[in-house]
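Researcher: Next entry in the queue.
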Amino acid sequence: MSFAADCKQELCMIENKRACCLKAECYGLLLFSKCFSARESQMVCENAAVARRVAEAAAVSAGVYAEVRSQLRRKNIGAYAITIPGEAARIQMIRSFGHDENDVNLHIHEENLQKDCCISAFLRGVFLICGTVTDPQKEYHLEFSTPYLHLAEDLVAVLHRVKAAQLSPSIARRKNSYIVYIKESAAIEDFLTLTGAVNSAMNLMQIKMYKETYNNLNRVSNCETANLDKTYSAATKQIAAIALISDKVGLDELPADLREAAVLRLENPEMSLREMGERLSISRSGVNHRLRRILEFAEQLGSPEESLAEQSVFEVEEKLHAENAKTEEF
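Model: Structure for this entry, 330 residues:
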């Protein structure tokens, strides 16, 4: 099952213990169901639990019979067609929530949402019938779809009335529908918790924590890789300069402090400035100063890159060892 289907399955397990909340949820289910009209109409639902919830809402709160018929849609996906047979029954359903069958534009009647608990139940019904939420592994997105602009605007107003959370809904047009959507992960968590899908909200939070941890680790890893690349790039130039000096005049021409730094760099091309400073018993800036002086010395002799191309690090090391041997003999 999808994440949205799991959320709806969890919501359908909730039992309304207060009559006001039961009526509010039924109101949300029916008002946004495309069956809330005196004319004969039909809506299709792919979730069996939601289809049963609509039929129960029509019977319990409006006292009318809702017919639910199973059918096959594209790719053999099971679905359920919901209708309210009989014009008199449809008019009775509409009037039971304070609406008039001759209303041209549908609006949410506030008298059906007297308390905060009723708002939560109403939003649960709306989400069950026309809402969906994207798998948080992919993105954070919760939306409601309705063909009526006034209903979409009224729904945004109700979402803004929620005191327990800042839901920040927005409206967009998509083909022949109006979409009320929420993009912030924290707002989606609050909405699911508010409507009763606590387990789904916890799953979303866990996925969010995992993604944030993974992204942070990946960011740190990329940063470390970038730093290593910079270190290797700098070390390559330094080794090229040392190779040039060794080839042209010999490392004995360097002052003792620079020669010590040059030998250490040549033997440890991967070593950071801090590690070199610990070996040389000087500060990081002191090591950097010595290496910069080596580069300046090499620039007076020619291009370090050319020398590195002519000689490998192994060859330079061999020459350096040979020079060391000569020095020790004398």
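Model: The chain has two domains: 3-196, 213-329.
Researcher: Noted, moving on.
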